Amino acid sequence: MSAREIIAYLVEGSIFIYAISISLAYILLAVFSMIELRRHLKKNFFIDHHDLLRSSLAPSVSLLAPAYNEGLTIIDNVKSLLSIQYNNFEVVIINDGSKDDTMAKLIEAFRLEKVPFHMVERLKTKPIRGIYRSTDRAFSNLTIVDKENGGKSDALNVGLNVSSNSLVACIDVDCIIESDALLKMVKPFMEDKENVIASGGVVRIANSCVIEEGRLIKVNLPTSQLARFQVLEYLRAFLLGRMAWSKLNGLLLISGAFGMFKREVAVVAGGYSTNTVGEDMELVVRMRAYLLERKIRFKIKYIPDPLCWTEAPSSNKILSRQRNRWARGTFEVLKNHRYMFFNPRYKVMGLLSYPFWFFFEWMAPFIEAIGVLYFIFLWITGAIWWTHALALLGLVYFFALFISTFSLLAEEMSYFKYTKRSDLWKMVLAAMFEPFLYHPKVTFWSLKGNLDLFKGTKSWGDMTREGFKPKTKGKFIRHNDS
Amino acid sequence: MTVSWFKSLPFNIQALLSICFFFLILSLLFILIIQISQLVKSVSTYFRNKYIGEIQNEVSLIVVQSAFSETPDASFQYKLKKLQALKKKSRYLSMIIMNEIVSMKKNLTGESAEYLENVYRQLGLREISISKVKSRNWKRIAKGMREIEVMQQTDTIHHLVKYLHSSNYYLRREVRLCLAGIAPKPLFFLDTINEFLSEWERMLLFEKLKQRPAELIPDFSAWYRHPNKSVVSFCVEMTVQFGQMQNIGKLEALLMEADKQLICHIIDSLRRMEAVQSLNAVGSILSKSQSSKLIISCLQFIRSIGDNSCEKIVTPFIRHKNPMVRMEAIRTLHETGASLSLNDRERRSMLAHIQHPLLS
Q1: A25 Cβ under 8 Å from any chain B Cβ
Q2: Which residue of B has its CA nearest to A429?
Q3: In A, which residues are within 8 Å of B228 by CB distance?
Q4: Strands (E), A219-325
Q5: Of B38, B146, B170, which is closest to A43 when you measure between CB atoms?
Q6: Which chain A positions have a beta carbon within 8 Å of B163's beta carbon?
Q7: What's the rounded Cα separation, in Å, for the pair A288 and A269?
């Protein structure tokens, strides 16, 4: 065998083995997820959450929401949070050194007064300029913290220091939270005999939905094709991925948009790291590591209910920044916790979750890129067996279609938020075109993210949001989607 | 021709194309299932929308007119015939009628509720609920139980009791909730329960008990010595929620025997019941305790009682290593009127926090 043949054999063999492994992994996760999803639906079939929303036995929760330059929408967002139906909760808004009029608007709208709040600084943060409470009794559960700019992680750590309840829910201030979201997120902590330290819910895409005064009135499929691809992506990730990891107790990521934690565990584990842009995943991994090292049993639960609606990037520019950040965040977390790699001390996380993320989440764009480059090389050298190549391409395509339609089935069998008949066909079309129109872009941005990390980029990038602005009189819908 | 073309391909290509075909068929199958599911949902929504107005109207009229009519029986029978005719049309309509009656019953009390129960019985829906309880499918059983519980069919309890020992956890939980809702002794099953009663279930049971008449609420002290700690914890909480002040002495006695977690809970309960007579017992626990959580519970108790006789016991805690304990101690001394001279900046800051009206 010549050197070239050996190299070809090694490259092709590695890619083939990788493809088989990742496919099997996705199939297993999808099957596990469906089983767990059905079990969850059965378990909750008879629970009427509305009967319990005002129960005095529900534990008190602190909602932590960092805000940076949210002047346009902050008042609506805060009012939306304050109107969540739950018996006992406080809302802590952390103004992370906004340069616009966020703070001024808050002070005026909620009649805030600076108070001599004694904060126990268990987590080191940037200096606090002031803590405010409302003189209006209607907003007695609102606390505003004004601090110097330090980033989202730093702001959340301030929230952890300030909050007074044993459960904290960390959210993005511009997300729309379902009215019974807190109760559903609290349920795993109350229901499980084992020590549940965190819970996460599904984040759904609110583009094109009808939103009035911070409340989701009607769910619509996004009109923008880019947003639809993201809907499909989120369905796959949440309904066919995280359910399985939750079942295996190997969940590494609770979405930063909406996650609930036991405050004490988050604090003793060190709070959010300010050295990474993947702070949400990093905290969960660190909390797990902390408890595993001390041989403390725990669980992290995931709830498939759609609890939080967020605006997805509607332009390639903004989406590229988001995916760039996600790629950097993933690698930062994997790098910081590389001691877990196949380490039995970390049980499912070390033996399954971490390797999965390393090989099939982080490495995937690289393997794909190598595959594409190798294909181009073979094409140039006239070494492609076209029948075989097209058959392989077809296999990859139909497998992707299979997983996407499986996620649509999971959605239909669970919460079926998209009820129009035409929505199904639009999503099927999205599934058919996604491998050509969307996936290559996402792969490229992931690769670029890793390159930027190598070059030393640490910023979040400007995530310009348009917000849920009024389009017609009396109706608030997301516009400029197309 | 296609088959011969396929057979002419090398074996590995055949394999790849077969797998492609397999995934394509599965994808199409999923899409078909989704379509069928959407169709079924549309049809059932259509059916429901077609008849729901009429059913709701008939049931409301039965309840309202029978309550206010001069000839209630005649009016009632007339309206009932219409509902019976609707029910006979199909099983699906029968199910809609059942759901409507059960849902309406949740919001009614008094005579109107009794009329609705009468409708439920006369339409033969009670037998349907009982047959559900006797079925094999656990969801059907649970649904039947709920219907029986909402419609307060207390004479059917014997059908439910056997599920207290079911191997299905959700069924066991459902039957406990139903029995809490209709049994003459709502919590009789606590005597024999040996599984963990989750906080979630405790909350559900509490919401059920809240709907029962006051005279049926049991004396929770009956379970203070239960071997199942979760039952004890539940009963301590219920003692507070239902204001069973006569059990304060028993709770105090329990303080001496309970584990750390339960002691905190009992002290919190005594605080909420404003059990002044337990001050000495709590003070004694405070002076011996090492646990920050327990110390804070004791300090909160002393603060709520408002007695400054414990000043000497409380004062050392303003120098405790745990800042939360220090804060609580300062708050307690301040609110019980004790004299405070704080030289330390941190403690002065704590006091400023405590004194501010927007932070208290």
Answers
A1: no
A2: B31
A3: none
A4: 258-262, 299-310
A5: B170
A6: none
A7: 9
DSSP string, A301-343: EEEEEEEEEEPPP-SHHHHHHHHHHHHHHHHHHHHHTGGGTT-
CA distance A441 to A447: 10
d(CA A362, CA A337) in angstroms, rounded, equals 14
Quick one: which of B5, B20, B13, B93 has its CA closest to B56?
B93
CB B45 within 8 A of CB B87: no
Helix (H, G, I), strand (E, B) or coil at A476: strand
Looking at residue B210, its amino acid is K
- Nearest-CA neighbor of A52 among B270, B161, B199? B199
Measured between CA atoms, how close is A311 to chain B, in angstroms? 26
Reduced to 3 states, what is the DSSP secondary structure of residue B227?
coil
Interface of B with A in 121-150 (CB under 8 A): 139, 142-143, 146
> Among residues A48, A27, A47, A38, which one has the least CA distance to residue A412?
A38
How far apart are alpha carbons B38 and A423 in whole angstroms?
Answer: 11
A72 Cβ neighbours under 8 A, 6+ residues apart: A467
E strand map for chain B: none
Q: Going residue by residue through chain B (360 aa), what tens digit of pLDDT does each one get?
A: 677 888 888 888 899 899 999 999 999 999 999 999 999 988 888 888 888 888 888 887 777 766 666 656 666 777 778 788 878 878 888 888 898 889 888 888 888 888 888 889 988 999 999 999 999 999 899 999 999 999 999 999 999 999 999 999 989 999 999 999 999 999 999 999 999 999 999 999 999 999 999 999 999 999 999 999 999 999 999 999 999 999 999 999 998 877 888 999 999 999 999 999 999 999 999 988 889 999 999 999 999 988 778 888 899 999 999 999 999 999 999 988 887 777 788 888 999 999 999 997
Q: Give the ipTM of the model, two decimals please.
A: 0.88
Contact list in A for residue B353 (CB cut-off 8 A) is 115-118
Check CB contact under 8 Å for A45 and B33: no
Query: d(Cα A137, Cα A114) in Å, to the nearest integer?
Result: 15
Structure tokens at B91: 């099983």
**Closest Cα in chain B, distance from residue A388 (Å):** 6
> Are B295 and B285 contacting, i.e. CB atoms less than 8 angstroms apart?
no
